[in-house]
User: What shape does this take?
Amino acid sequence: MNFRKQRANPDPGFQIAPMIDVIFLLLCFFIASQLFSQWETEIDITLPTAETGQIPERLPGEVIINILEDGSKRVNSRALDDAGLESLLTRIVKLFPGQPVLIRADKRTDYEHIIGVLDMCRKQDIWNISFATIAAEEPAPSGS
Assistant: This one.
């Protein structure tokens, strides 16, 4: 007679396949969230509409200058005054000549604030400038 207990489930040890699955899912999550964090869209900015407005392809290293309704400027979610923005643009030009700049201004922003940023870019010899807009909504077709 055999009085020893038989183990029903032997210890499987460390399972590598589920661990690889978890690591792969975490990698996908962090890559996706990193892409969205780079787009840097200020929630409280309402962009102006344009008939030819379209979402352009993002350029690598593109600097996004957000101009809020009150005229305050933000870069990388950091508020900058005129001197700080000019200093940042100076460093960018020294390190990366021809760096693209995207200006996102609220549609209710005074024109003088936008011209001030354009003037700063011109002083630093930044010529690759684009403006963010959204496409105008097409009117709903009237049904009969």
